[in-house]
Amino acid sequence: MSDNKYLAFNAAEWEHRKFETQEEAEKWLQEEAREYDDGIPQEFIDGESFVAKITHRTQYCVTDKKENYTDKEEWPYSDDFEHVGNIEFNAV
Fold this sequence. Notes:
The chain is of the alpha+beta class. It is built from 2 helices and 5 strands. The protein has helices at residues 22-34, 42-45, and strands at 6-10, 15-19, 50-53, 56-65, 83-91. Strands 2-1-3 form a 3-stranded antiparallel beta sheet, with helices on one face. Strands 4-5 form a two-stranded antiparallel sheet. A hairpin with a 4-residue loop joins β1 (6-10) and β2 (15-19). The chain starts with 5 loop residues before the first strand and ends with a strand.
């Protein structure tokens, strides 16, 4: 799992990157805003680009496995799956 704690989002390009520090994320966004030949994009002016601190990350938790079923018990899910589960959020 990544140690990056900040996410920067460039709304003009719908592009994001992860960074270890807020300063690195801000620097990247500032550089991105200056790279346009036609001036600063409206998405930056309107505040649609941002830096966010990552506080929670998803974790997949298996709730049932195909191996738990015998020949007498039918796997109640699609045969395309070997297991099923849910997404949970864990604080970082």
